Amino acid sequence: MEKGSTLRVSRKNLERLRRIAALISFNKGQKTNLNDALTTLLDKFDRQSYDLSREETKKEDRKKFLTLLDQPIEGAGPDDYKELEYDD
User: In tens digits, what is the pLDDT along the chain, a chain of 88 residues?
Assistant: First the structure.
């Protein structure tokens, strides 16, 4: 068993942690403790933080892509930008 440490929380937060532990216990069908509740909350936070950082990367990549679209292509003239009409 791991050596534990003391963590001070308000009564309101302790009650919330107990409710979360009860929900986890109900969903898993086995006993859980407050450490399991904290682990679940921390894991969820880590996943959300990762998703947020990925969103920022997507935004930056979009901006870079749009700037590439605005740059002229060397060797391409006005005729290359005309729409072609095909008669089928």
Answer: 567 788 899 999 999 999 999 999 999 999 999 999 999 999 988 887 777 677 778 888 888 888 887 877 777 777 776 777 777 6
Prediction pTM value: 0.51
How far apart CA 28 and CA 40 sit, in angstroms, is 12
Q: Residue 40: enclosing H or E segment and its boundaries?
A: helix 34-70
Distances (CA, A) of 15 to 19, 50, 62, 82: 6, 28, 44, 68
Count, residues in the chain: 88
Instruction: Give the separation between CA 53 and CA 49, rounded to whole angstroms.
Output: 6
